[in-house]
Specification:
alpha/beta; Rossmann fold; 2 domains; five-stranded parallel beta sheet; 10 helices; 17% strand; elongated; binds NADPH dihydro-nicotinamide-adenine-dinucleotide phosphate
Length: 327
């Protein structure tokens, strides 16, 4: 074996490869710079680079990789999702089922989500859809809503990392906040209901319902006509989870009758939302393009560096996706 080849093998042994999703907003050079700045002992490559040595890829930091691509890395030790949800990974039938998946969760992503949900709830409370319509029509539509955040009850479906961050922020603003999770949470600082009965109770007690649940077949369509009917007349809906959670025809029907007063949707069943979709022009709906919480490259690298460090020390990394629970 030549000296050059031995030296390369030694280098490869100390420098595991991390294969990263690159695009014009997140170029390879910037990922490389950030991993170097973090002091990570890894070689950074573009996950779509066909010339990379697939055996040397130990980590993938990715969002919606090409179906089948992750299965091509035989020595993959950890998949790090660039999103909090992992549905963009599990949708690939060839996803290696023995490689752990870590979810993106940083102070920044949780804070961004809290900011967005606070903005959405305040927008529904102050009837921003009405203000936007009046502005578009050049109408001086002066009105009073006669209530403050202290009078407004917000129900959060899903009191996980994001849900808890949003709930805490809403409470600080003055909203009355309760949550709903998969089990009783007597230790929770936010009152938490659970089960079918708990869901119905929460809907009946919520002026605004915020969906922050994970993607799962069991939770698809959970925010539907049956919940809207239980809510106080004129209530609001915020969806920052996944489009599949809210039944859009039911939402439109409830807005039509006035049972619902407004909705803020960061996620929709089809993304991007098709140009002809009625949600775009609905006077009671605010649509945003799935941007409630988008991790920055530097925060993603900081999170990845911590997770990779745990794997290298043979510790269990944090924020692992539980394949049995489905989130
Ligand atoms: P977590 O996994 O941390 O929390 C999920 C929560 O949902 C937990 O409280 C869990 O209950 C609850 N839950 C799960 N299954 C059920 C069930 N069957 N019945 C009742 N409650 C249930 O998720 P995150 O907080 O990190 O993320 C929440 C959502 O936000 C995800 O859908 C994610 O994709 C989305 N998201 C959206 C973004 C955007 O920009 N729009 C950005 C980031 C995330 P328990 O506590 O009992 O386990």
């Amino acid at each position: 074996m030549s000296n050059a080849k031995t030296t390369k093998q030694n280098e490869d042994q100390v420098q595991n490869i991390v294969a990263v999703t690159c695009n014009k907003f997140a170029p390879l050079a910037e990922w490389t710079r950030l991993f170097e700045a973090a002091g990570a002992n890894v070689r950074v490559v573009d996950i779509d680079d066909a010339s990379i040595e697939v055996e040397d890829v130990a980590y993938a930091l990715c969002f919606r990789p090409q179906p089948g691509r992750l299965a091509q890395f035989p020595n993959l030790q950890l998949i790090i999702s660039l999103g909090a949800g992992v549905d963009h990974l599990t949708a690939d039938p060839s996803l290696p089922d023995t490689v752990p998946i870590a979810r993106m969760s940083t102070d920044q992503t949780r804070d961004q989500m809290a900011d967005y949900v606070a903005w959405a709830c305040l927008s529904l409370l102050r009837d921003v859809p009405r203000m936007m319509q009046a502005q578009a029509e050049h109408q001086w539509d002066h009105f009073s809503i006669g209530r403050t955040a202290h009078d407004c009850r917000v129900g959060i479906l899903g009191l996980g990392a994001m849900g808890m961050s949003a709930a805490t922020c809403l409470e600080k603003i003055g909203f009355q906040v309760k949550g709903w999770a998969s089990r009783a949470r007597p230790e929770s600082a936010i009152a938490c209901l659970w089960g079918e009965e708990g869901l119905q109770q929460l809907a009946a007690q919520s002026d605004i319902l915020v969906c922050m649940l994970p993607s799962s077949p069991a939770l698809s369509g959970i925010v539907d006509q049956s919940l809207f009917a239980l809510m106080p007349r004129g209530a609001g809906i915020v969806n920052v989870a996944r489009g599949e959670h809210v039944v859009i025809p039911d939402l439109l029907a409830a807005l039509e009758t006035g049972q619902l007063g407004g909705a803020v949707l960061d996620v929709t069943p089809q993304e991007p939302l098709p140009a002809g979709d009625p949600l775009w022009d609905h006077p009671r709906v605010i649509v945003t393009p799935h941007l409630a919480s988008v991790v920055s490259m530097s925060a993603a690298v900081g999170h990845a560096h911590t997770l990779i460090g745990a794997v290298e020390r043979r510790e269990t990394p944090t924020h692992l996706f539980d394949r049995v629970k489905g989130y």
